[in-house]
Amino acid sequence: SYSVLKRKLRSLITSFTGLDDL
Known about the structure:
Layout: H1 2-16
């Protein structure tokens, strides 16, 4: 379930900061 968490976190970070190189 780590993939889902990572994807959710990435989505939040991307939506918040707008960075897409994580």
